[in-house]
Amino acid sequence: MKALVYLGPGKKTLEDRPMPQIAAPTDAIIKIVKTTICGTDLHILKGDVPTCARGRILGHEGIGVVDKVGGAVTAFHVGDRVIVSCISSCGKCDYCRRGMYSHCVNGGWILGNKIDGTQAEFVRIPFADTSLYHIPAGADEDALVMLSDILPTGFECGVLNGKVQPGSTIAIVGAGPIGLAALLTAQFYSPAEVIMVDMDDNRLQLSSRFGATTIINNKDGRAVEKIMKVTGGRGVDTAIEAVGVPASFITCEDIVAPGGIIANIGVHGVKVDLHLERLWDRNIAITTRLVDTVTTPLLLKTVQSHRIDPKRLITHHFKLDKIVDAYDTFGAAAKTNALKVLIEA
Ligand SMILES: NC(=O)c1ccc[n+]([C@@H]2O[C@H](COP(=O)([O-])OP(=O)(O)OC[C@H]3O[C@@H](n4cnc5c(N)ncnc54)[C@H](O)[C@@H]3O)[C@@H](O)[C@H]2O)c1
Ligand SMILES: [Zn+2]
Ligand SMILES: [Zn+2]
């Protein structure tokens, strides 16, 4: 089968690989129908993710058809159409029993990281019963690819952890696919003001169409000043960090209002200064989270009922044999205006 393989920092190739096989009775083999590329795949290619070894098939998002199941799989059958979760969970360990699938001691974020991933014609999914979701008949499958990772990430790490409330003022720093997923799902809670911050005018224009009430281009480094101005000097109740660099986290520290929450989503590779000398008396909270994908069933219902339309995040379509072009397009988002690139296997 064809698969996109990581060959070490800066190197990847589309090559022929053997078909995955059932290795444990709880496994399923999925024939991939559609997959996509995540910002985290670019982090791996930069060499930022040491757990991902050379020779690994990348990808942790996608939908497909069940091709084979192990003897212990009861919830899925050959031919079922499924969403693959980016998080594999055994459903039995202490963390899984607490709904913290991302910290599953037998799984977690292993797909396209510690085990071969979804950017291939077939993938082996461990703990299939608790790591796959049924696709309802007649569903728009393109939209459902966004449920593997980005929608639950924006919702769980940003909106739920940030306790977005009716009438609240929120800022989302970073208008990439994750920040936009937070923007879409924040609207379940009817915040009064949603301020989006980025340096990319195209992404900011999109944010306006997706429901942002104020957009701020931070190219001049004056986002904090502008946010304080539009909030009457008060700041925001929820500051969602959706970039993963020190500057964007510090922006959140500077704009959080008394009683507010900084909800970090970004993957940070270097240390960030925490200004407790300014924050200690502001009654704030800081949250961090690796996406658990516990909200996937809930989000699936909101997509089915047209409360949200995550398909709007898809900007480009490719076939699997052009996946290297898809990486080039996704990696040059500032030039290509790419958000999510959909790859058909
Ligand atoms: N916590 C989790 O479980 C989890 C899951 C998936 C992704 N992530 C992380 O979420 C982050 C966002 O992902 P993405 O795919 O949307 O990334 P992305 O790189 O596509 O988007 C980031 C955006 O931030 C903007 N930006 C950069 N510096 C900025 C600054 N100082 N102020 C304002 N905007 C700035 C960029 O222009 C870009 O549009 C990444 O760090 C990713 O690794 C976390
Ligand atoms: Zn991802
Ligand atoms: Zn577990």
How does this model look, in words?
There is one protein chain. With 345 residues, the chain is an alpha/beta fold. The chain is built from 13 helices and 15 strands. The protein has helices spanning 39-46, 94-97, 128-131, 141-144, 150-160, 177-186, 201-209, 223-230, 246-255, 276-279, 296-304, 323-331, 333-336, and strands at residues 2-6, 12-16, 28-36, 62-69, 81-84, 122-125, 132-134, 169-173, 193-198, 214-217, 236-241, 256-264, 285-287, 314-319, 340-344. The radius of gyration is 20 Å and the shape is globular. The mean pLDDT is 97. Bound molecules: nicotinamide-adenine-dinucleotide and zinc ion (ZN) (2 copies).
Short description:
The protein has 345 residues and is an alpha/beta fold. The chain has helices at 39-46, 94-97, 128-131, 141-144, 150-160, 177-186, 201-209, 223-230, 246-255, 276-279, 296-304, 323-331, 333-336, and strands spanning 2-6, 12-16, 28-36, 62-69, 81-84, 122-125, 132-134, 169-173, 193-198, 214-217, 236-241, 256-264, 285-287, 314-319, 340-344.
